[in-house]
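Example record used in the benchmark description.
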Amino acid sequence: MVHSFLLVGQSNMAGRGFLKDVDIIYDEHIKMLRNGRWQTMVEPVNFDRPNAGIGLSASFAAAWRIKNVAEEIGLIPCADGGTSLDDWATDGMLFQHAIAQAKLAQKSSKLEAVLWHQGENDANATSAHLYHEKFSLIVQAFRTELNEPNLPVIIGGLGDFLDKGSYAEHFSAYPVVNDALLNFAKTIPNCYFVTASGLTSNPDYIHIDATSLRKFGVRYFEAFDKRQHILKPLVEEDQTIEKIYQRELTNSEKIGLLNVKFFSGALSENDYNAELVKLM
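Model output (structure tokens):
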């Protein structure tokens, strides 16, 4: 049985971390839904834009696997960069697409939770004070449409860096959105808040960088696993990430990763064949 998680929100859920900045996470028991099939996860998981990159879902899944060594986890990528809560309205295409993908996944998996990160687009004086009301409708609709009235929803906070950089004026109300996200999680059953405190950004001061997204994913897992809010950085999040990276790959995983590198042009044919001989 695959244990699946629906990824929804905007670009910091989709992931904009630079691929070159972190080690690869590759595990044949971590799947992603592509073309209606569970395929071995490779990053970018949520390819919504040409600049898609590292997201939080890979380290979330890898942390889940540390505790569930004999189980498979599946990621359902449906986040879309630059989107507002209005874009996620329950009669809109983004919401309906996410529902369709989640229902497809439910045919071959157990849907465990929704992972949500969104709010930058609504972090302005006009929209921020409406966040709680609009988000309530979306969460309730996810639970109703998916026939999961107690479906956990893990909700990430916005980064503390949004008041810096060239685009700071567009995010002037981000503390209001963060308060709304936290208050929502505290008042709606089976919703859990995850702080972005201490996380760092790409040079644009909008998108969480790859190293911090690895930490964020571990925090999301801790919230899901413990069914509690994560209000400060975890003491051992760096150690957990190191444990993820140090996991010994199986032989079939080594071959799979070798194929990924070769067919993406990262290896010459001679190097590929030499490495494949060693593994065979």
